[in-house]
Amino acid sequence: MSSTKNSLKLIATLLTLGATGVAQAHTGHGTESLMEGLSHPFGLDHLLAMVAVGLWSAKSLSLREAWQGPATFMSALLASAVLGHMGLAASWMDTAIALSVVLFGLMLARQQTLGKATGLALIAVAASLHGVAHGAETPAAGFMGYALGFMLTSACLHASGLGLGLAIQRHLQASRGLAFGVMGSALAGAGLYLSAQI
Fold this sequence. Notes:
This protein is an all-alpha fold. The protein has helices at about 1-20, 35-40, 45-60, 70-85, 95-110, 115-135, 145-170, 175-195.
């Protein structure tokens, strides 16, 4: 039980620390270099969404299939970033990105796991919103370096969520449903907060 309490305290601490950072990921930073791309996904909406994908994959997919959630997100992220760079964009994109955090939180909090195909489809749609926003904000001269940067950081964030999720599956077997439920609810709440700030 103390292990569960410690895990929940860690999750609450991470969410609190994240909330002190940048609430919206699309303002107040450059978009023209590898280093700017590496730092971009640490905006709270992107960070929470990518960690959530890793957590959901660990919870909902078999150990051999857990890579598919992050891979789906990364593929859709890159393809839609190219579309965004070519001019596809919408004024409501930031709100939709914040609501994608709500979606992932609800997916994680559900007692019954979504089917694999449905879950991966929802991940692809949400990733496309993130990708279009990434691509639309990048000037032609800096797209390649910036894209490489945000893809590398995105992969690391997915890996951290996946690692945390697999640790919960392995070490909190009796209370893993509670742990995932609490994290999912916290993510959904954070997404609603972020959407209200836009």
